[in-house]
Amino acid sequence: MEQVKTAENLFEELRWRGLIYNAAEGAEEALAREKVTAYIGFDPTADSLHIGSLLPIMVLVHLQRHGHTPIALAGGGTGLIGDPSFRAKERQLLSQEQLAYNLEGIKAQLAHFLAFEGVPNPALLLNNADWLCKLNLIEFLRDIGKHFTVNYMMAKDSVKTRLEGEEGLSFTEFNYMLLQAYDFLRLYLDYGCTFQMGGSDQWGNITAGTELIRRVVDGKAYALTVPLITTSTGVKFGKTEAGTVWLDARRTSPFRFYQYWLNTTDADVVPYLKYFTLLDRDEIAALERFVVAEPHLRAAQRRLAEEVTRAVHGEDGLRKAQQATEVLFGERDLEGLSADDLLDIFAEVPSSAVPAHDLGGEGLSLVDLAVTCGLERSKKQARTLIESGGLYLNAARTDDVERRVTLADAIEGRVIVLRKGKKGYHLARVE
Predict the structure, then answer these.
(1) Of 315, 227, 314, which Cα lies nearest the Cα of 271?
(2) Is the separation of the CB atoms in 65 and 3 below 8 Å?
(3) Does pLDDT of 90 surpass 80?
(4) Which CATH number does the domain 239-332 belong to among 1.20.1250.20, 3.20.20.70, 1.10.240.10, 3.40.50.300?
(5) What pLDDT does 9 receive?
(6) 31 Cβ neighbours under 8 A, 6+ residues apart
(7) Inter-axis angle of helices 266-276 and 54-65, nearest 10
(8) pTM
(9) Would you say 37 and 219 are in contact if contact means Cβ atoms under 8 Å apart?
(10) Helices within 89-242 (DSSP H only)
């Protein structure tokens, strides 16, 4: 994201944007007093981050924009254990090879948001496997473990929740807190990092780190957490009927990504503009007035979708997502879209298979195709629809009842898009 110099207090901006859930005593003063180094950890259990990761990413973006140094810490070491925080059961453990693969994907995505070079305060991307995988167990227990009592660890909400559940808590997971605390100590010693930030479910692990720094080197470090978001209807943010919304275009296409934000409710759109964009107070206030005065225009949702899609998928990804949206609403033709694009755009509309041999030679009459696909119940109704100009073949209106459809009409020989009226889509899959 573009770097912008600003003198505004970082803590105040984070608070206005709703990005602070809890902060340790003295954190606000420390951020206002000096340039700090702060880190957030990212879970490498998949080869892509998802939109639930965007909130902590945006905190790092604001840190860098205000002149502080952000560290994105990939959990290559802790990922081999799995964070038990507020999970009903133990995570599936990953191999070293899978973690390495996942980390490469995450690194590329973080580079869309953070400047790792060319600025006075370049971001750092580190992997805690570099120190955790070299630890000697006896030395670790002697030098680090001695600073934590079992009573202290069991008092943390994330641990208590698991102990009260049916699955219990494995000894492996129980030690996760010590590893995360050790991460903070190493970053404090090696990089002068005095802040750890994360989701509100990480408070116990983060404060364990500040306590370890105090005990080992008599240092002062701070914790700051961001809220875990749910929608205004109580649904976990980032979850859809189709599953998780990912930042990787191979997992969630730019079109579907754009549509997720475009479908944000009026109740959620203003908070989301504060959370996930860099728009200033005046711009967001203007969009909020549109939500109240002209909600049907969905100006705020469109701006939200544009800003976030551009940040994640670039200008080209945004352009393709907007083109696909225009196709979906009948505002443009299909030029430039592949069969895969169309299958993605029209994944939720009715579809049927059409044998390729039916489209060979002279092909199939448009009347028969309309009936076969269920756009009309009879040939008479299909003819009437065509003659009235109400049938679209691949986004082109046709009123020729003698029109025949051949393989040449199929996009890449695979897909034919039919539309009745403005929104009556049907996808014919050539098989």
Answers:
(1) 227
(2) yes
(3) no
(4) 1.10.240.10
(5) 86
(6) 9, 10, 11, 68, 195
(7) 40
(8) 0.81
(9) no
(10) 96-110, 129-132, 137-143, 150-154, 157-163, 171-174, 176-191, 203-217
